[in-house]
Structures are given as structure tokens and as C-alpha cells.
Amino acid sequence: MAYLELAALKKVYGKDIEAVKSFNLKVDKEEFIVFLGPSGCGKSTIMRMIAGLESVTEGNILLEGESIIDYQPKDRGISMIFQSYAVWPHMTVYDNVAYALKLRKISKEQIDKTVKEVAKISDIYQYLNRYPNNLSGGQRQRVAVARAIAIKPKLFLMDEPLSNLDAKLRVSMRTDLKRIHQELKTTSIFVTHDQSEALSLADRIVVMNHGYIEQIGTPNEIYHDSESMFVAKFIGSPPSNFLTVKVKEREDKIFVIHSDFELEVKNKYKKALKNKYINKEIILAVRPENFTINKKGILKVKCNIIEPQGSHVVINIFVGGEEIKVVSNILTLKTNEEIDLGFSEKIAFFDIETEKRIR
Amino acid sequence: MEKNKKGTVKSVFKSPYMFLVPALLFYTFFWLLPVSLSLIESFTSIDGGFSLENFKMMFDDPLFGEAFRNTLIFAVISLFLQFIFALMFALLINRNFKGSKWFLFIMLIPMAIPPSAVGILWNTGLVESGWINSLLSVTGLQNLIELLGIAEGPIIWKEASGLQAVFMIILIDTWTVLPSVMIILLAGLQNFNEEYSEAARIFGANRFQALKDIVIPIIKPTIITALLLRIISGLQVWLISVMIFGFNNVPFLLERIVFYTDQVRLGVYSYKLSVTYSVFVVAVVSITAYIFIKLTKGKDWSGTSE
Ligand SMILES: Nc1ncnc2c1ncn2[C@@H]1O[C@H](COP(=O)(O)OP(=O)(O)OP(=O)(O)O)[C@@H](O)[C@H]1O
Ligand SMILES: [Mg+2]
Question: Which domain, by its residues, includes B176?
């Protein structure tokens, strides 16, 4: 039995704004799940339905096997961190953290103990007597974290908690969040549209688009084994390169043909291509780092633009009129230098119509 | 040195205090001057010397006690009623339900009616065959009233007196000013970040606790502004009373002032009396406002200072 289960969850705003369309997800205890997707794809809507701030149009939410959709937010045992932090300005940091505990009728001594404990974990101990307006954004964020972990929730929801912080603080806060999760092991769902945040925090990532789930998987699966063109394009910077190719069969060998090159498909995809795609166009997807350079490649190209990134370079290359990006650790490459480009084993094919992976 | 001296002359005109001059002039001529003149007037006898006889005359006014009591009761109860109802309506409209815009529009109608028209409206309503009694009998409420023994036959509203009359005036006043109080509270609520109360509800508060512990304290500055305005104008009620019950029947402090200024021709005595009442009202309003502000003042959490 899953710890948290979202079963055919659906949300319709008004008459016909379908924010979430039949969403299915099972979350294990202690897991750290990240919802990743572009703006407006329904991430917040799902979080708000789990928290009880938004009604569920259809489907069910089960926490520890029990449906919670008819419960008030306060009875769900869930904590949430909001994008605006929502740290109450008229209470001191101490009172912000203690408020939920007071409502639970916990003894004063116990409250004091808990507040100080979580204040230490989230590193706000020295600010306990301050009002939030006298704190920086990052400190307020920590107050929100302290408040959320103080009630020992069954589930910890975070809706873009880092998006209001500057780039540097964001990275250090996410390390802190990961550390806190490793310490407390609270089952968590974290929303972001920042892929590096998602990749670095998640046990599993749920990639969403227009209210649908595109793919659920570990960061490695999402990155190296993208299920759809959307995921391949959304994840990775620079993202996956797409080249339109035609499948041909010659003497029991399968080739994908591009105007500038031909590539023989020998690996596990050979059968799938042979079965359904002979003489059809498909998409060949290659991550920027999955090219080979000057190692018995299959086409000669010129380096158009070279962008040094310190540890590696990003090369812009034109292949048959389409621009692709290649990452290489050969730092001595020069603009307009001709190279011998090839593909590594890690290539993927997508159906041009459904944009889904061909396996 | 030369330069510096020149600079100081110039700097008088450039100093930030120059911006205060128009306001200062305004308050001197239209506020300080008349108030001090009245103050002096109220403490001088007819033959010109200092005396307390005007105040003695005011306290001896047979209606002074009732006017004072009515004014305070009116101010406090109407403040309370108007706050509760205005907050309820503001919260309701703020939920943005279907048709809330229309509801708001309808609620605002009383604001558009000038005070004297309000008097006429209720005046025609409260006569024996007025629209209020018609409404009661059409809706069948009249039967209920008679059944419960509250009244026999149509209620003669205008014969109400004493506290009953004050309560009627409170209700009419509430009807009139509710929208203006509500608008101020609504403005406060619409600036309010909904995530504050959502956070409260997630962390264990029910709707009422979220309202009491989070929403109201955060919009408190707005609430205080609205209530301060209301308590000040509540202490100055008179027109509804006079329009419906006439002078001398349901006395209020301001009603006394108008009465002695406009209605009686005792010459210099009535003038003195009305001035003294004015000074008294100013004192009551100032003291009440001061107490109100003191009572409602909480910890300052908004500031940048520690
Ligand atoms: N109260 C509402 N009424 C109508 N439509 C809404 C409402 N709230 C959200 N929506 C719509 O539902 C869709 C999903 O919104 P949601 O806030 O869940 O997106 P999101 O993935 O959280 O986006 P972001 O990354 O920008 O926060 C959007 O198209 C949005 O316009
Ligand atoms: Mg969102």
C-alpha cells in the first residue's frame, strides 16, 4: 500500500478550465517527490487539493490508506510552505512556529522545547524574538520551514519555496532542505519549474505538462531515459537535440537516414523500428554530451560557435540546416574547425506524431 | 563664510518645514482659531469675565443628561453593530462568489442617498400607514408580532421614546453607514495575502480561528481607521433623530447644539449654550478618540526597527 496515493485526481475550475486531468501517483513513505513542469501546468492546483485548500472535482486522495478529501485542512496532518512564505507578520518568529502547537493544546514547556529544537534545525535560533518584517527573505523562508516541521507532519508540501530567493541562496537553501529531509525523513512533495532543483532534490520526479503526467521517474531515468519529447526538451541544459530522420531497411539492416548522414541502428531499438517505422520519418534525439568527436564519426561538420563553460565547451553545429548543440571536454576546439561527429550508444527515437518514445 | 550665510537664508525656504506651511495656515484659520474662540466664549460670562456659568447652564439643561447618555449609547452600540455586520459582509463579498459584484452594488445604495433623504425615507416608512407597517402586514409578520403579544394592531413607531427610540435610530444609522464601513474593511481584505489565512488553516486553525488570530490582527490598522471614523461621527449623531422624532424628543449632544443655534431665540443665552455644548462635544470626541487609540494600540510589528 502506498503511503500517499493520488487516484485519477481531476480539477476543473469554473465550467471548462481543466487544470488537472486524471492524475495518478503513488508515493512511498519517506520519499521526496518533485513536481516539475512549466508555468500553468497544474502543480499548485494539485498541492492545494492535497492540502485541502481547493476542492477535488473528481478522484481521490489517500493518505495512509484513508481518503482525506472530505477533511478540513487542519485535520489532514499536512504542512505546507508557500511561495510567499506566508509567515505571519504580526507574530514573532517564536509565535509563528508555536501557533500550530498552541492550537493543538500542547503544554507550554513542550511547545518551548519543540520551538527551540526546530529553530536549531532550521538555523533561526537567534531570530526567535524578531518580527518577520525584520528578516531577510532567506531567513523568512527558514521560519516557514521551522513552522512546517514543528508539527511533525505526515506530509510536507512545498510550492516553489525557493523561487523568491537569489540564485546563490537558492542553491544553499536546497542543500539545507535536502539535509533536513535526510534528518527527519518526512514524506515530501516539492514543486518547482527549475530542473536543476528537481534533479538535485528528488527521489522521483513527476514531469507535468498541461495537467498531465509526462513521466514519473528517478532523476537519472528522467534525464537519460526520457519518455517523451517534452521531457527530453524540458530537462537538460542545453536540452536534447532533435533530428528528423527516415527509417530504411537494407539487406536486413536498419538505417536512419538524414540528408547529411546515415546511421545504422544496431541496438535494442532495431526491432521496434523494423516493426512499425520502415520508410517513415521519426525523431532522433541525442543529448548534447552523447556525441563523439573525432572518433570514427559519421559526418564532417564545422564548429559554428563555441561557448566555453570552464570545465567543458558547448559547440553549435549545423546539421542539414538544423542547429544542434554538442557538449565536449575538448577545450582546444576552435571556431570553424572541422570535426568528425558521431553518436554514442545513448540515443533515443521518438514517434513524430505521438511524440512518445519508440522502444 | 559668505556663501554659507547666503545658504542659510535660502535654506529656510528650502527646508522641509516649508511644505507644512499651507497645512499649518489651514489649521490655524479653520480649526485652531474657531476652536479657541469657542473655548474662550464658553468660559466667559455675558458681561465678559471668566466664569463657569455657561457650563452650569448646560448641566442644568433638563435634557443634558439624557442627551449625553443617548450619545454615548448610540456611539458604542452602533460602532459595535456596524463593525460586526460590515465585517461579515466584507468577508462575504471578498469570497468572490457568483453575483458578488451585484451584491456589492446593491449594498452600496444607501451610501448614495443624502442624509436628509434618508430621514424622509424612514419618516414616510415609520408613520402608522407607512411602508414598514405595510411590509409587515403583507409578509404576514404583523400577525406574528400580534401573536407574540409584542404589539396590538399596527405599531406606532414614531411614539417610541427613550432607549427604544435610540435603538431605532441606531438601526437606521447602521443601514445608512454600513456600506462605507464595509468598503474600508473590504479594501483591507483585498490587500490581504490569502496565503496567510490558508497557512493558518493548514497549521490547525478552523475558519473562525484563522479570522480571529490571523486576518483581523493583520488588517487591524484598516479596522482601526474605519472604527475611529465611525466613533467620531457616531458621537455627532442628530439629523436622523430630528427628522424622525423632532427636537427635544430623543436628545443627543449635537441635537442640543442645533436646537440652541437654530430653534430657540433666547438671544445671547442660547448662543452661549450652543457654544458650550460644542466645546463639550469636542472634548468628548477627543477623549473618546484618545482612549480608543490607546486601547487598540498593539505591538508594532510593521516597522524596520528592532
Ligand atoms: N482559481 C482559479 N480559477 C480558474 N483557473 C485557475 C484558478 N487557479 C488556477 N487556474 C488555472 O489552472 C491552471 C493551473 O494552475 P496552477 O496554479 O496549478 O499552475 P502551476 O503549475 O502551479 O503554475 P506556476 O508554475 O506558474 O505556479 C492554470 O491554467 C491556471 O490558469
Ligand atoms: Mg504554482
Answer: 75-296
Q: Is the Cβ–Cβ distance between A195 and A36 less than 8 Å?
A: yes
Contacts of A103 in chain B (CB under 8 A): 203-205, 209
Cα dihedral B27/B29/B32/B36 (nearest 10): -170
Helix, strand or coil, per DSSP, at residue B191: coil
Per-residue pLDDT tens digits for A36-67: 999 999 999 999 999 999 999 999 999 999 99
Q: Closest approach of chain B CAs to the CA of A340, in angstroms?
A: 56
Beta-carbon-side half-sphere exposure of residue B285 (alpha carbons within 13 Å): 18
Q: How far apart are CA A285 and CA A243, in angstroms?
A: 6
Q: Is residue B11 in some structural domain? A: no
Instruction: Provide the number of structural domains found in chain B.
Output: 1
Using the structure block, give the residue that is written with the C-alpha cell 474662550.
Answer: B40
Q: Give the Cα separation of A112 and A58 in Å (integer).
A: 42
B151 within a domain of the structure (yes/no) = yes
Phi-psi region of A62 (alpha: psi -120 to 50; beta: other; left: phi over 0): beta
pTM of the model: 0.83
Q: Residue B127 sits in a domain of what CATH number? A: 1.10.3720.10
Put simply, the chain A residues between 195 and 234 with a CB less than 8 A from any chain B CB are none
For residue B21, give the C-alpha cell.
Answer: 506651511
- Ligand 1, pocket-test mutation among A16, A23, A45, A46, most atoms within 8 A of CB: A45
Cβ distance of B203 and A133 shorter than 8 Å: no
> CB A161: neighbour CB atoms within 10 A?
26
Tell me which residue has its CA closest to atom 4 in ligand 1: A13
CA A41 – CA A59 distance, rounded (Å): 18
Arch. (CATH architecture) of A241-351 = Beta Barrel (2.40)
Are A74 and B201 in contact (CB < 8 Å)? yes
Domain segments of chain A as ranges? 4-234, 241-351
Of A79, A84, A131, the CB nearest to B202: A79
Q: Say if B134 falls within a structural domain.
A: yes
Give me the interface pTM, i.e. the ipTM. 0.85
Find residue A323's DSSP bridge partners: A318
Those residues of chain A that have pLDDT short of 70 are: none
Any domain includes B32: no
Fold adopted by A4-234? Rossmann fold (3.40.50)
Do residues A291 and A325 make contact, with C-beta atoms less than 8 angstroms apart? no
